[in-house]
Amino acid sequence: MADILVDIRGLRKHFPVKGSPISGRKSAVKAVDGVDLAVYRGETLGLVGESGCGKTTLGRLVVRLETPTSGEILFEGENILGYGGEKLKAFRREVQMIFQDPYSSLNPRRSAGSTIGEPLLVHGISAGRERDEEAARLMEKVGLTREQMGRYPHEFSGGQRQRIGIARALALRPKLIIADEPVSALDVSIQAQILNLLRSLQREFELTYLFISHDLSVVEHMSDRVAVMYLGKIVELAASADLYNRPLHPYTQALISAIPVADPGRMSRRLRTRGDVPSPIDPPAGCAFHPRCSRSSDACRDAVPALVEREKGHFVACHLPG
Amino acid sequence: MPPILQIKNLSTHFETARGTVKAVDGVDLCVNEGDTLGIAGESGCGKTVLALSVMRLVPRPPGRIVSGRILFEGEDLLAFPEEEMRRIRGKRISMIFQEPMSSLNPVFRIGDQVAETLRLHEGLSSAEAHHRAVEMLRLVGIPAPETRARDYPHQMSGGMRQRVMIAMALSCRPRLMLADEPTTALDVTIQAQILELIQGLKREVGTSVVLITHDLGVIAEAAQAAAVMYAGWVVEQGPVERIFSSPLHPYTVGLMNSIPRIGRRPAGNGYLNVIPGTIPNLLELPSGCKFRDRCARVMPVCAEKKPALLEKTPGHSVRCWLYV
Ligand SMILES: Nc1ncnc2c1ncn2[C@@H]1O[C@H](COP(=O)(O)OP(=O)(O)OP(=O)(O)O)[C@@H](O)[C@H]1O
Ligand SMILES: Nc1ncnc2c1ncn2[C@@H]1O[C@H](COP(=O)(O)OP(=O)(O)OP(=O)(O)O)[C@@H](O)[C@H]1O
Ligand SMILES: [Mg+2]
Ligand SMILES: [Mg+2]
Q1: Which of A188, A191, A217 to mutate to test the interface with B (most CBs of B within 10 A)?
Q2: Tell me, what's the pLDDT at B121?
Q3: N or C, which terminus of chain B has less Cβ within 10 Å?
Q4: Which residue of A lies nearest to B158 if distances are taken between CA atoms?
């Protein structure tokens, strides 16, 4: 049995929103709404889903930038939600996040070298000359040069800024990196450079990735397993090849058939989903996907389907899978 | 049939404090009647400025169309007085802008905004314009269009706003539509709906389309012809099957190789092929070919002289010394 690094159990995050002025009833955005998910040591677990389905919130919960409404997160078997003080500080060394937007995630008044070396200082690992040397080494690791250490973010391109963000995440030698849309803001040619970098760093430092993206081709390329999220819930989870070859959930099927294929000879047979993504404040009863689904039944309107293992390692939450 | 749009040696420059940015630098391009031409290229290569030039909407100053001709149905748009251009814009040529939120007016109901275009260009009465506006919203797949016409832009999702923009762009049955990244901000499923919509409306109305996107998959699915831009140049143009099956320019080849493709993991170590380096700063362009410092097949001549866009096989042109 593979070794579980992170075990997410029954995790919920509800953001309260102002009650309706008429009914006065309080409501909440159910950004993450009952997620069970294990991340194995050394793997890349891809997380896909439409905008607003809760991917970033799930990532922020795992690094403890957000406190869950309920549920637990075990890291190497220990519940991190009970952590405080020294334990929390130690945990923060183990888990790092790379952010979506390379433009706003760097402090414009800090040089590249100082940004990358900052975590070393905060965690009291190194200072002064030693810290600068480590920052320079990290810059070279991610394909920048040590001569660029004194430069500020605006002097770098988007792809270079993303490299700085990656170097900063690596500084503390973490075990887990949450990469939240690390290439979405980049052009295809630069995107390929960053994806290759993440892959080679994973091999060198034995990293585990939770790789978040709405680009299904990128996720397929990077991931060992893929989880599909819809309105705060995991609706399908499988090994990458299984998920793309034999998706069982109608939502996954629609997502995969909607990917534009860079191959004019092969016109895709597109499955239609109707309508827009519903509101996470007032999600549909039963299966949240049923109003857009092509094969919904009475059960789909009444009962929330549980995530069950249909084939070995292939989980799906659907009353009528296949 | 003559092409509906023919751009000849077009240059659009911006005067900035740090120098002249040649955003569009001698572009030749051709759109055949009834076709969709996809334009691809990295951020900052001049795609939006090219489209704005056709609409004659380049902000001036700092921007200026410095040379070239833009033949639309055989007539040079650059020779028209502004008055005439205003009648063409929105009626015979329309544009879907990259930012849907910023091009819808937040204080007007969306039905009124669509109707306004129709009143202006088609001379319809208020009642007729409103009726047609609702029909257009229905056509672009807005559910309950009579009710949704009363919505303000912020009450709609991103996908719905984008469809409203398309309804506006198509309401006067234009001959040519310029769609600047119409689906980039959207999810794949909504993106697929919008692309199908543009295709369907194209068939019904007979509009020719220029589709700007950096997503090559979108071009492969929706276009008949494709052009690849690099730092203000068109480096390759041709029928879409040719561009994808036998790209000529080393930059196009690099782009094709760097896209992850489902079910086709790169063999061996799993790394994608990449084009090394980044797009040059438009203020410090290399001499000769603009792509040469990233090109694996660079030759001495590439540093000396700029290559010209030359037709290699009928309809397939490339701007590269390898093919001279
Ligand atoms: N601090 C917050 N307060 C209130 N609502 C929030 C907050 N953060 C997120 N949300 C809501 O939670 C839902 C999930 O948001 P999240 O950012 O996790 O989505 P996502 O899947 O990462 O989307 P995207 O692909 O657009 O980044 C959204 O409806 C969002 O509006
Ligand atoms: N108002 C302006 N003033 C100065 N330079 C400008 C202005 N507008 C555009 N440019 C420059 O012109 C070049 C081309 O910009 P353009 O917006 O056409 O790129 P693009 O290909 O549409 O990129 P993207 O994919 O990011 O939308 C860029 O280098 C840009 O900085
Ligand atoms: Mg997000
Ligand atoms: Mg643009």
Answers
A1: A188
A2: 84
A3: N
A4: A276
Q: What is the CATH number of domain B5-92+174-248?
A: 3.40.50.300
Q: Which residue has the higher pLDDT, B27 or B190?
A: B27
Instruction: Tell me the one-letter amino acid at A216.
Output: L
DSSP H or E segment with residue B129: helix B126-139
Q: Where are the beta strands (DSSP E) in chain B?
A: 5-16, 19-31, 36-40, 63-72, 75-76, 93-96, 176-180, 208-212, 225-230, 233-239, 310-313, 316-318
Which residue's C-alpha comes closest to atom 29 of ligand 2?
Answer: B44
> Which chain A residues contact residue B215 at CB under 8 A?
260
pLDDT one-digit tens code per residue, A64-86: 999 999 999 999 999 999 998 89
Under 8 Å between Cβ of A81 and A61: no
Q: Tell me, what amino acid is at A176?
A: L
Q: Which of B143, B262, B278 sits opposite A220 (nearest CB)?
A: B262
d(CA A104, CA B22): 28
CA angle, corner B193, sides to A232 and A227, nearest 5?
30
Q: How many CB pairs under 8 A join A and B?
A: 124
Of B221, B255, B274, the CB nearest to A196: B274
First to last CA, chain A: 27
Percent of chain A at pLDDT > 90 equals 63
Domains of chain B, by residue range, sit at: 5-92+174-248
Contact B104, B167 (CB under 8 A): no
Distance of CA B105 to the CA centre of its chain: 23
Specify the pLDDT at position A273. 66
Tokens of A52: 């607003």
Per the CB < 8 A criterion, the answer to whether B305 and B316 are in contact is no
Both structure tokens of A255: 């997502």
Per DSSP (E only), the strands in A186-297 are 208-212, 225-230, 233-239
- The residues, any chain, with a CB within 8 Å of residue A165's CB and separated by 6 or more, are A98, A99, A102, A105, A106, A182
Tokens at B62, concatenated: 């700092």
Give yes or no for B273 touching A (CB within 8 A).
yes
Q: Single out the residue of A10, A48, A51 nearest to residue A223, CA to CA.
A: A48
Q: What is the sign, positive or negative, of the torsion defined by CA atoms of B120, B124, B125, B127?
A: negative
Report CB contact under 8 Å: B191, A260: yes
- For A145-196, the DSSP string reads -GGGGG--GGGS-HHHHHHHHHHHHHTT--SEEEEESTTTTS-HHHHHHHHH
**d(C-alpha B253, C-alpha B319), whole Å:** 13
**The pLDDT value given to residue A277:** 67
pTM: 0.84
Confidence label for A55 from pLDDT (cuts 50, 70 and 90): very high
- Distances B9 to A271, B52, B211 between C-alpha atoms, Å: 43, 16, 20
B33 touches chain A (CB under 8 A): no
pLDDT reported for residue A272: 61
Question: What is the CA(A60)–ligand 3 centre distance, in A?
Answer: 10
Of the ranges A187-191, B49-53, B140-144, B156-160, which one carries the lowest mean pLDDT score?
A: B156-160
From the list B256, B274, B268, the residue with the least C-alpha distance to A192 is B274
N-to-C CA span, chain B? 29
Per-residue pLDDT at B101: 64
Give kind and range of the element (H or E) at residue A86: helix A85-94
Ligand 2, residues at Cβ distance < 6 Å: B 14, 16, 21, 23, 41, 43-49, 59, 62-63, 98, 214, 282
